[in-house]
Amino acid sequence: MQPQISVHRSAFRHTFLILAAAAFFGAAAGPAPAAPDAASCATNPEARQLDFWLGEWSIAAPGAGPSATSKVFLDLDKCLVVESWDGGREHRGKNMFAYAAGEKSWRGMFVDNDGRAHIFVDGKVASGTAEFFGPSRGPTGEAILNRIRIVRLADGKVEQDWDKSSDNGATWTNQFRLEYTHKK
Question: Could you say which DSSP state residue 53 is in?
């Protein structure tokens, strides 16, 4: 056993020395690329398209009284839109959205304290309407396509719909519709 340990230690030392040399010579070869301009998210009109949703909200199903709350704010030098929500009965979550300038598309992630996480890789936002798509699995492992829509309403409210499709978007089933009203 002892020879194997020394071989592993020797291989580790060899790998460490190669990585250290690569890091040194990489740094010596020239300056590191400049960090992206942090203000770029603040001034990029595409990255500001969800700003209509910023604020503190009471949330209700249409025709019902408020049963949840939400705070939508900017983070990471205005590059990330974060929704922190409390659905009541100890159900909470965070939803995050960011504009990926290189892909000219929005990305999103929804996570709740029940262990659910959904990734949205194809998003478009324009004129007060946001739409995000992302895959997941159903209860028996079947492929599901999720669609989230966030729409600015004429009275300053915001509506959010979550739809699911088991036929790759040919038909949709609404999971919920919520109406957001600014807290006073």
Answer: G
